[in-house]
Specification:
about 70 residues, mainly beta, about 0% helix
Length: about 70
């Protein structure tokens, strides 16, 4: 996954949609990091992901979802 960096934030939260719900997959604590390689996902499965920026305890709006399938 990759996205465009935002300014004046603490980092990003990566969420995955699976089994009917959104789950926090990773909290990225470095605001300059704009990529994430999702690992440990079940083979032959389609997942949806969204990214949110955050600053301290405030979470920004979710990005549009991105669908990806594992091999």
């Amino acid at each position: 996954l990759s996205w465009t960096a935002k300014t004046n934030i603490t980092g990003y939260k990566v969420y995955v949609y699976s089994s009917g719900k959104w789950t926090l997959l990773k909290t990225i604590t470095k605001a300059t990091t704009v990529t994430y390689n999702a690992t440990g996902l079940k083979a032959g499965t389609t997942y949806k992901f969204v990214i949110c920026s955050y600053k301290d305890t405030l979470i920004g709006e979710k990005s549009d979802s991105l669908s990806a399938s594992t091999l």
